[in-house]
Write a structure and sequence with these properties.
By secondary structure, the protein is of the alpha+beta class. The chain has 17 helices and 14 strands. Strand 2 (93-97) and strand 3 (101-107) form a beta hairpin. The chain is elongated, with a radius of gyration of 36 Å.
């Protein structure tokens, strides 16, 4: 019986070293990954690093009354925040100001240009049929070519996976081009332009449609606008859709797969951004190219099926539909079959362009359009002063904790300080890695969360040390005391950290902005506390319990039995009736 017991003890004692080696290897690997990533400091929030603050003013679309209301503003804030922040911990802040303004704060150190582009892309998203397309420069002569151009292809993934092919048509003769363009625009106008008595009346009371209300006049005006449009001019592009309603045909600009500007005549919007349920950039397993997969809502699926059924029967370029955002054609795929609930857009995408388009499709359907009012640079001076004061407060608190540990626990304080150091290293490295990984940014509340974590971590050490001391007070030697104390301390530590983590999780879910930074940091450090105590503090205590300095109860070890008021060994108090304590019994005890 004795031999197996010794074998188990020997096996158990060999594990602390392995555990310590494991956590040290993890620390080295994480630190190496931090240096290899090129990011050696955590990303800072706008209050610590400064950044850019953008003010957007909401405005109603033509024909909409009272569209700028609290509900639509809150919806817009939510969509812009998801587009800019992603997971919600990047520290980009989006909030309303007054009745019609939205303030977007973008921290320095992020991709400010890309984030600002996402913020500026805030108007409506529409799917419009393509009526004609040509090169983006002005077309002064009637002989300008009108070539079909598609940036991708739409694929019905829900059925047989039939693919529409992006194609280019030969340049038609001038007369055919103008005739087909006029006919297409006229057909698109038929459903929307019928004269009414209110449009104008003759003396006899009969309706007299004005020139602008007739299909021919509207076609001519739209054709002239298309001919004169110069898509290479930014100012001209910004004016093409001003005052255009979704049900009206319009002209628009976009870039082809080679980056050259093209201009379009587009029919009335058939599907809008609210009809898109979600979109995701993925790699096509067959071609290895980046594509964008779209899923529509129930109503959107019916609309999309109806428009693609019509388009699939047309000749290029009228078999294309344009995805229009802020008046720009971001993609114009062609279709050759009816598509339903989901579709795939493919073309000359790289990873970034595919993800950008997916982001636009997922979050681009805002209830309002916005005008950029101002862009200002935010300095980090005030936040730097607050951070300096906070770090001083944290250093004072840490110093007081160290003094308390040294005075009260003496030699055990070395274990506590080593554990605090390991926890600090892991926290710093993980925060640094989370910056480029998920966009985590360190702000002032997050710093406060890290400072609070010092107390949580120190509390775990104290619970363990006091359990060991309780066992020594009962008359046990150090090594059995460590093993007996650990299960009791472990339960207490887990319950305490679970409560802290639960509070952090709830706080993260129910709050927004900077408070989420505090909650995220508190939750992260609470998890790391469990890791450090289980994988570093306990194994280190087990190893040091073998050392004479601690095992013999040196006065400076913090485990002196006399100082702790230890009881005599338990077996000295157990006497058989009528027996006396002899030398043999004393020695055995």
């Amino acid at each position: 019986m004795a031999a197996p017991k010794k074998g188990r003890s020997h096996g158990a004692q060999s594990r602390p070293g392995r555990t310590l080696a494991f956590i040290l290897i993890v620390m080295v690997a994480l630190t190496g990954g931090m240096f290899l990533s090129g990011h050696t400091t955590p990303r800072l929030g706008i209050d610590l690093a400064g950044g850019t603050s953008i003010t957007l003013k909401a405005k109603s679309e033509p024909g909409q009354k009272n569209a700028v209301n609290q509900t639509n503003m809150n919806t817009a804030v939510s969509i812009i925040e998801r587009r800019v922040n992603g997971l919600g911990v990047t520290e980009s802040e989006v909030q309303t100001q007054g009745n019609d303004n939205i303030i977007v704060n973008i921290p320095k150190g992020t991709n400010e240009a890309q984030a600002r582009e996402q913020v500026g892309t805030t108007a409506q998203l529409y799917f419009r049929p393509v009526l004609t397309v040509a090169a983006g420069a002005p077309t002064p002569e009637p002989s300008a070519s009108s070539s079909g151009s598609g940036k991708g292809k739409a694929t019905d993934k829900a059925t047989d996976g039939g693919k529409g092919k992006a194609s280019s048509t030969p340049t038609p003769t001038p007369t055919a081009s103008q005739t087909s363009q006029g006919r297409a625009v006229t057909d698109a106008l038929k459903a929307d332009t019928s004269p009414t008595p209110s449009a104008g009346s003759s003396a006899s009371g009969k309706p007299t449609p004005s020139a602008s209300s007739t299909p021919d006049a509207a076609t001519a005006a739209l054709q002239k606008k298309f001919t004169d449009l110069d898509c290479t001019d930014k100012a001209a592009r910004s004016q093409v859709t001003v005052g255009v309603r979704p049900e009206d045909p319009t002209v628009a600009c976009g870039k082809d797969s080679s980056g050259q500007w093209e201009k379009y005549i587009l029919g009335p919007a058939e599907v809008n951004g609210k009809d898109v349920d979600k979109a995701q950039a993925t790699i096509n397993q067959q071609t290895g190219a980046w594509v964008v997969n779209m899923d529509f809502t129930g109503g959107g699926s019916k609309k999309f099926s109806k428009i693609t059924s019509k388009l699939s029967q047309q000749q290029p370029p009228m078999n294309q539909f344009a995805i229009v955002l802020d008046g720009d054609v971001v993609s114009a795929p062609s279709v050759s079959s009816t598509l339903s609930g989901s579709a795939e857009i493919s073309g000359s995408f790289d990873q970034q362009s595919a993800q950008d388009l997916a982001n636009v499709l997922s979050y681009g359907a805002l209830p309002l359009s916005f005008q950029e009012q101002s862009v200002t640079t935010v300095t980090a001076a005030l936040g730097g002063e607050q951070l300096h004061a906070g770090l001083i407060a944290g250093a004072i608190g840490l110093l007081l904790v160290v003094i308390y540990l040294v005075v009260y626990y003496r030699g055990l304080s070395l274990i506590a300080l080593a554990s605090l150091l390991v926890s600090a290293v892991l926290t710093y490295v993980i925060m640094t890695l989370l910056g480029p990984a998920i966009g985590f940014a360190l702000n002032l509340p997050a710093v406060c969360g890290a400072i609070v974590a010092i107390g949580i971590t120190a509390d775990s050490f104290i619970v363990f040390f006091e359990r060991i001391r309780d066992e020594i007070r009962e008359g046990r030697s150090l090594r059995p005391s460590v093993e007996r104390a650990w299960p009791r301390a472990r339960r207490t530590i887990l319950v305490s950290d679970f409560v802290s983590f639960l509070a952090a999780a709830v706080l993260f879910v129910v709050t927004v902005g900077k408070v989420q930074g505090f909650a995220f940091t508190l939750g992260l450090t609470t998890v790391l506390d469990v890791v450090v105590v289980f994988l570093f503090t306990k194994p280190l205590m087990t190893i040091l319990a073998r050392r004479k300095f601690f095992a013999s109860g040196h006065p400076w070890s913090g485990l002196d039995p006399k100082r702790l008021g230890a009881k005599p060994p338990l077996r000295r108090t157990r006497r058989a009736p009528g027996s006396s304590v002899g030398p043999a019994n004393t020695k055995e005890a």
